[in-house]
Amino acid sequence: EKQAQTKIAELKSLLNQYAHEYYVLDQPTVPDSEYDEKLRELQKLEEQFPHLITEDSPTQRVGGEPLEGFVKVEHRVPMLSLGNAFNEQDLRDFARRASQGVDGEVSFVCELKIDGLAVSLTYENGKFVRGATRGDGTIGEDITNNLKTIRSVPLTLKEPETLEVRGEAFMPHRSFLKLNEQRKENEEEPFANPRNAAAGSLRQLDPKIAAKRHLDTFLYAVGEWENNDIATHSGRLEKLKELGFKTNPEWRKCSSIEEVMEFVEHWTKERPNLDYEIDGIVIKVDSLEQQEELGYTAKSPRWAIAYKFPAEEVMTK
Ligand SMILES: Cc1ccc(Cn2cc(C(N)=O)ccc2=O)c(C)c1
Question: How many CB atoms lie within 10 A of CB 186?
């Protein structure tokens, strides 16, 4: 049995590495058949030795019986909403207010604003222990089992960190189109857009249904992070990626509002070429100390803003 334990541990870490390469880095190093073969080997060993199955085994992604309902979860650090900017002047006003509210130079981080569902992921000593929806920002719903089915959500981090991260769960265009084709074939109402499809998928009480929806994640913020002294938001994004999270690769540090405007113009043009929906650009002050100095209004941070793309005229046929 000792050998079985060693073999199970080896297969588990190999399979989790392959899945990280495939779902998070989008750079698989082995063919799907190799992954499948090793997964079957692990499944056979776990059937033989069920007491050796661990929570973070790749065989445990789609677990749990359908729920009767969702348990409420309180966010220790509220998940706030962002103020909006609709044009260049709004952005210049934001940048000026930020610069006036702090000492020293201000640099920004620009990120794509993914049009999905905001979620919170909690890890204790590097293990995924709970996932929740944003809800009203203070109280969300526990959707741990549904989030475990999302292959880009790491079940184990590369270091035993204790932290709570926030990000977007979303449905890529390809998955959205395939899902709506299936729904039409089953004479079900198609989803209006990928955001509704993602929300509907995460609200499923049965994880087996959520697992079929091929959702994905990009992580972009931190609630609490035990014993972490990283001084900038960009530094945090880099560390989250090292830990095994999927972060959006398009973020950029911008040292002036001109660079912010370039980023906004670039992605206004490039937006149709992305495999997922974005509804704007998020601009944040990079220094965490300056974020602290700027603080919050009643409902939003003063150190971040969401530039919203102009709503597209839907050409009525
Ligand atoms: C049969 C089969 C097995 C695996 C996959 C997808 N996939 C591939 C890898 C890989 N190549 O590193 C890792 C995890 C994973 O889920 C598909 C689509 C079909």
Answer: 7
